[in-house]
Amino acid sequence: MNLEHVCAEVLAVVDPELGDVTIGDLGMVRSVNLDDDLDGRVRVVLTPTFMGCPATGLIADAVQVAARNAGARCVEVTWDPAPWSETQVTAEGRHKLARLGIAVGDEGKCPHCDAELVVVAANSAASCRSMARCTNCGDLVDVLRGAASPIRWRHYAHL
Questions:
Q1: Tens digits of pLDDT across the chain (159 residues)
Q2: What's the rounded Cα separation, in Å, for the pair 85 and 91?
Q3: Which strands, in side-by-side order, build the sheet including 117-121?
Q4: Nearest 5°: CA angle at 32, between 60 and 40?
Q5: Which residues on neighbouring strands pair with residue 22, listed in sequence order?
Q6: Residues 48 and 113 reside in one and the same domain
Q7: What number of H helices and E strands is found in the chain?
Q8: Strands (E), the chain
Q9: Position 156 in a domain
Q10: Pair 158, 119: CB distance under 8 Å
Q11: Could you give phi then psi for residue 35, rounded to 5 degrees?
Q12: How many domains does the chain have?
């Protein structure tokens, strides 16, 4: 079993709520380690983008399958409760999210016109996202944010 191959397969697991955005793109993978190379045991530590995320079970199952397909015999997936932050999203992940119309972080820009966003709702379609309106084009945009990230409310007169 090749640990690098297992890591690559785990990082390539797609987030079930975000199309082609992977858990590697989102920075959700804390570690992938061999417990015992002879037995092919792998321990994967993940962190959810938001505690209580309903997709964690699906993600853990997909990680198990990916690691086994890469040669691991036994896979242990655990969730690290340490807060996830939108700063952990890779450049590729930010690009993929922008293509989906999702901004990243409170200081994110509109993925359509790159203008400033104004938060209009603390939560959106998922617990890890808030809803914002673009100050230029007026589009409503999901904003991916970590639970520890403060929401900076701004007044917006045109709601």
A1: 789 999 999 999 999 989 899 999 999 999 999 886 667 789 999 999 888 888 999 999 999 999 999 999 999 999 998 888 889 999 999 999 999 999 998 677 899 999 999 888 887 777 788 889 999 999 999 999 876 555 544 434 344
A2: 14
A3: 102-104, 140-144, 129-134, 117-121
A4: 90
A5: 14
A6: no
A7: 4, 7
A8: 29-36, 41-46, 74-79, 102-104, 117-121, 129-134, 140-144
A9: no
A10: no
A11: -80, -45
A12: 2
**19 backbone φψ class: left, alpha, beta (φ>0; ψ -120 to 50):** left
The reported pTM is 0.86
The phi, psi pair for 142, rounded to 5°, reads -75, 145
Q: Which two tokens stand for residue 73?
A: 């015999």
Shared-domain flag, residues 73 and 17:
yes
Measured from the Cβ of residue 52, the count of other Cβ atoms closer than 10 Å reads 9
Adjacent-strand bridge partners of 29: 46
Residue 76 in contact with residue 136, Cβ under 8 Å? no
Contact yes or no for 103/132 (Cβ under 8 A): yes
Q: Are residues 29 and 97 in the same domain?
A: no
Domain that holds residue 72: 3-79
